[in-house]
Amino acid sequence: MKIPVSVAIITKNEEKNIREALESVKNFEEIVIVDSFSNDKTVEICREYTDKIFQIEWKGFSWQKQFAIDKTTLPWVLVLDADERVTEELKKEILERVKDKDTVGYFIPRKNFFLGKWIKHSGWWPDYTLRLFRKDKGKMEERQVHEKILVEGKADYLKEPLIHYTYQSIEDFIEKMQNYSSLSAMEIIKKNPSKYKILIKMILTPIFTFFKMFILRFGFLDGLRGFILAVFYSFYSFLKYAKAWERIWK
């Protein structure tokens, strides 16, 4: 039985992830892929699951995802990342909940894995994110990073989670942190803050970030992984403000 929902996925060199993601949604009625000219086997793998593949130059996370959404043809859309998986339990819940005519969007919890282990604390669970919505009532927020879907109308919460295999290694985390911190710095600069305000945040935010993740959100219960995440996110906070300060200072 096909699930009457379109799946929208953006890709760039995701051959390690994309097959499992597509396998998890192969019984959805439509799968739309927007690829940024991958030079690995990503597109080749995608062709095994769908013929709706569009290749365009990278223009940012929110722009790419909105382009993918625009290419879907069904009333309901599920936005999925290449490192996420839809479980059988979640499929059943989606099938039931899209029948609700009063709800236009659903927040889905995510089970985030870091270095092979589910992180149950550190602010990483339940990590609700709005991913399932009526196409005519939702759109991507326009921003450089940490993009989200905005809907016009009632949004509810699903119980079954997406599986998210984020950051497969320390190197992977650092590589993404470099990219995300540069994009976040651009978002900070857009708000036109003074360099002194940025300097204060650059000093204080990393300290608070570590305390919040490791203590207030019980990251210490996640063991060494919780400590590593708290340190990394603290440095990420420092890095984005440092990059913003550098650009304004210049």
Describe the protein in words.
The chain has seven helices and 13 strands. The protein has helices at residues 18-24, 42-46, 61-70, 88-97, 170-190, 195-216, 223-249; strands at 3-11, 28-35, 53-55, 76-79, 84-86, 105-108, 110-114, 117-118, 129-134, 138-140, 149-151, 155-157, 162-165. Helix 5 (170-190) packs parallel to helix 7 and helix 6 runs antiparallel to helix 7. The radius of gyration is 19 Å and the shape is globular.
Largest sheet: 7 strands, mixed
Terminal-residue CA separation: 58 Å
The strand line-up of the biggest sheet is: 3-2-1-4-9-6-12
What name does the CATH topology of the largest domain carry?
Spore Coat Polysaccharide Biosynthesis Protein SpsA, Chain A
Query: What structural class should be given to the helix and strand makeup?
Result: alpha/beta
Strand content: 15-25%
Radius of gyration: 19 Å
Assigned CATH architecture of the largest domain:
Alpha-Beta Complex
The stretches of 5 or more residues where confidence is low (pLDDT under 50) are none
Which CATH C-level class of the largest domain is it? Alpha Beta
Q: Kindly state the mean pLDDT as a whole number?
A: 96
Q: What's the number of helices?
A: 7
Element order: H for helix, E for strand: EHEHEHEEHEEEEEEEEHHH
Number of domains: 2
Q: How would you name the CATH homologous superfamily of the largest domain?
A: Spore Coat Polysaccharide Biosynthesis Protein SpsA, Chain A
